[in-house]
């Protein structure tokens, strides 16, 4: 049996043999978010949108009987009149029962009230079923202990003794009948565990020492382990350890590769981390403000971070310390770009300024040695917020993307205006210039990537790149290939000369915020809203574009097929039930195979008719040419061939294949079904198909 709960406030029971829902449990006023089985699957607990955990008793009626002594035969073989009466009573009972109660019977026992007022997020038990825990959208895990049958029995005996004593004192009789354990006594609250942040998920394990271990995954990407000593008078959960050092506590907004391809910088709202590319280990963690852009200073010994508050922060990697903070912009520093001569860099911010900086050596106050610093040179004032800045490789031009959806190109030496690239419907969030300075590619929130010539500012091609905003774009070094990252959780590679989509890297589950390519072009690292950093490596395996296209077309077709409106089946209540399968390439192919088989059957029958007429006219038997397909199947008849094809359709795809079948083929199929059923072959399969077609 399978039990499922859903947002439709129902719990449904399914028989996996017949693949049907045989029971629906009502009684919840809101969505059922979680459920757990207890007491050797004889009790079901459901968690809903309110603060109640509802408890249901399960009675399994169709239990396996002893094969040596079937009850029905025993009662029929018995000669006593009482036994006959019993069987009659049993039969009437069976008829009166609800048909859905024949397999399992559910009865509500009561409710346990949680302390949390919001919905249940996760409800679960340990493997032994001795402990039950649940949490809502807050940071509290509520833990309950569940008594085993032996413990319940002991408690009942104690209660009985007390009741007997009372009965003796008040001279009452038969106290046994009204002695019962309440639900609160069977499922007792142990304690509440307060985590350091909101809980996402948990798991429990009861150790042999009698300690309950609880591991919690929190919303801020931390894993915490708590121990609960059950032998204590008042059990209190103690945090034993936590896994925090690995990743960031919030989304990574900027990435950078060191010039030797070995170190990767990632920065988020609370910290900057340096990772070793080959071992994937975090080498340094440094606290920072909300980071938006970053770069490695030439020499890879320092890094610069641009923050949301408009500061530039310079860190030394050897000591892991913050050397200098400069108030660079009055708004967020959206973009930073290293100059090709490596003597300085340029920043663009929300204060409508582009600022030019150079690296400088200044005397350190604390020690007599000189240290690296940033010196401000000049400002380019613009009319709109600056979203992205990029140098051309020869350092003659600077491209600036503005909030008015245009990209303006200026001469670096004089800061005079050179070109305006307009055509995007929404602001350009990212851009890059290729290694030879001939092309600039721009990615926008309008989901398009445009490729422009940098000599005249003409748009070579506009590509529909992603299903949501294009968040990052970077050219592969020494080539005209580039990568884009989108909010549709995909990373795509493109050819800027042939304007072709080369491949899609799928792996992230949510929006991809940024990516970085290694200077040798062999690695791509990407960061996403799913809190993961992913590292991609270029392989030596050749990529055949035609195959990629074919796979993409098939995937798109399957998606479009699945999105098509499901056919309405007459007599079926829409919304309540639907076919378990969905229309795919496979179901369409199966339908085509059935159609081909019927076509062959029609042709062969027409040929046979013709052949019989010739034989009649000639008055003698003329040899009949056998179809090569039928010969391959061992000289079977055309009708038997249709059955063979029909039997090869997967059981899960049968209904969908029959729905796709055009009606002109159905009458032939029904005649053939009639023929097969009379022969008694594969009756079950044929009846299933027949009933479905009639429906």
UniProtKB/TrEMBL annotation:
GO MF entry, a single one: snoRNA binding
Coiled coil: 146-173
Pfam family, any one: Utp12
Keywords tagged on the record: Coiled coil, Repeat, WD repeat
Acidic residues: compositionally biased ranges: 85-94
Residue ranges of every copy of the Small-subunit processome Utp12 domain listed in the record: 639-695
InterPro entries reported in the protein's UniProt record: SSU_processome_Utp12, TBC1_cilium_biogenesis, WD40/YVTN_repeat-like_dom_sf, WD40_PAC1, WD40_repeat_CS, WD40_repeat_dom_sf, WD40_rpt
One Gene Ontology term from the biological process aspect of the record: maturation of SSU-rRNA
WD repeat boundaries on the chain: 25-66, 245-285, 326-360, 421-462, 463-504, 505-537
PROSITE patterns, per database record: WD_REPEATS_1, WD_REPEATS_2, WD_REPEATS_REGION
SUPFAM superfamilies noted in UniProt: WD40 repeat-like (SSF50978)
Transmembrane segments: none
Spans annotated as Disordered: 66-100
Coiled coil listed as a keyword: yes
Family classification: Belongs to the WD repeat WDR3/UTP12 family.
UniProt cross-references to PANTHER family, sorted A to Z: WD REPEAT CONTAINING PROTEIN 3 WDR3, WD REPEAT-CONTAINING PROTEIN 3
Protein name (record): WDR3 protein
Gene, per the UniProt record: Wdr3
């Amino acid at each position: 049996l399978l039990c499922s709960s859903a947002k439709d406030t129902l719990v449904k029971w399914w028989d996996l043999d017949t693949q049907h829902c045989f029971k629906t449990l009502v009684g919840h006023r809101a969505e059922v978010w979680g459920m757990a089985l207890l007491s050797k699957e004889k009790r079901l607990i459901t968690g809903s949108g309110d603060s109640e955990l509802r408890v249901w008793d399960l009675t399994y009626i169709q239990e396996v009987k002893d094969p040596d002594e079937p009850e029905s035969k025993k009662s029929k073989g018995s000669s006593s009149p009482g036994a006959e009466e019993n069987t009659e009573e049993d039969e009437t009972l069976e008829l009166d029962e609800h048909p859905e109660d024949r397999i399992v019977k559910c009865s509500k026992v009561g409710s346990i009230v949680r302390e949390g007022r919001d919905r249940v997020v996760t409800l679960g038990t340990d493997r032994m079923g001795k402990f039950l825990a649940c949490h809502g959208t807050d940071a509290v895990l509520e833990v309950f202990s569940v008594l085993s049958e032996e413990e319940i029995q002991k408690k009942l005996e104690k209660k009985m003794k007390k009741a007997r004593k009372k009965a003796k004192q008040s001279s009452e009789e038969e106290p046994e009948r009204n002695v019962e354990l309440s639900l609160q006594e069977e499922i007792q609250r142990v304690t509440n565990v307060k985590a350091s942040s909101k809980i996402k998920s948990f798991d429990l394990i009861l150790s042999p020492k009698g300690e309950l271990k609880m591991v919690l995954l929190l919303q801020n990407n931390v894993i915490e382990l708590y121990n609960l000593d059950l032998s204590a008078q008042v059990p209190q959960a103690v945090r034993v350890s936590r896994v925090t050092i690995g990743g960031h506590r919030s989304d990574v907004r900027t990435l950078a590769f060191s010039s030797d391809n070995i170190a990767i910088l990632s920065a988020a709202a609370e910290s900057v981390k340096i990772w070793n590319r080959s071992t994937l280990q975090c080498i340094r963690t440094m606290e920072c403000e909300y980071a938006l852009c970053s770069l490695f200073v030439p020499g890879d010994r320092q890094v610069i971070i641009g923050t949301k508050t408009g500061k530039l922060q310079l860190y030394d990697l050897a000591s892991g310390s913050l050397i200098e903070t400069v108030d660079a912009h009055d708004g967020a520093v959206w973009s930073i770009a290293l100059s090709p001569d490596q003597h300085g860099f340029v920043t663009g911010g929300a204060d409508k300024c582009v600022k030019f900086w150079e690296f400088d050596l200044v005397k350190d106050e604390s020690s007599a040695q000189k240290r690296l610093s940033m010196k401000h040179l000049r400002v380019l004032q613009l009319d709109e917020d600056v979203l992205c800045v990029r140098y051309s490789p020869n350092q003659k031009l600077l491209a600036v993307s503005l909030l008015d959806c245009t990209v303006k190109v200026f001469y670096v030496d004089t800061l005079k205006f050179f070109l305006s690239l307009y055509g995007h419907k929404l602001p350009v969030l990212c851009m890059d210039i290729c290694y030879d300075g001939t092309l600039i590619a721009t990615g926008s929130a309008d989901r398009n990537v445009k490729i422009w010539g940098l000599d005249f500012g003409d748009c070579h091609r506009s590509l529909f790149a992603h299903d949501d905003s294009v968040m990052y774009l970077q050219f592969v070094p020494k080539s005209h290939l580039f990568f884009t990252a989108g909010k549709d959780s995909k990373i795509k590679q493109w050819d800027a000369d042939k304007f072709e989509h080369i491949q899609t890297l799928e792996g992230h589950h949510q929006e991809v915020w940024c990516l970085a390519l290694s200077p040798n072009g062999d690695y791509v690292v990407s960061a996403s809203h799913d809190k993961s950093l992913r590292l991609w490596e270029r392989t030596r395996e050749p990529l055949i574009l035609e195959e990629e296209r074919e796979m993409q077309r098939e995937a798109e077709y399957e998606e479009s097929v699945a999105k098509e409106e499901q056919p309405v089946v007459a007599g079926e209540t829409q919304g309540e039930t639907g076919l378990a399968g969905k229309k795919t390439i496979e179901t369409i192919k199966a339908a085509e195979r059935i159609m081909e088989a019927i076509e062959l059957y029609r042709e062969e029958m027409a040929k046979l008719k013709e052949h019989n007429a010739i034989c009649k006219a000639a008055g003698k038997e003329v040899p009949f040419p056998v179809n090569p397909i039928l010969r391959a199947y061992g000289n079977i008849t055309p009708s038997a061939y249709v059955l063979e094809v029909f039997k090869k359709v997967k059981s899960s795809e049968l209904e969908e294949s029959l729905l796709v079948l055009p009606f002109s083929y159905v009458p032939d199929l029904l005649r053939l079904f009639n023929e097969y059923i009379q022969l008694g072959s594969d009756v079950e399969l044929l009846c299933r198909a027949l009933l479905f077609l009639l429906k």
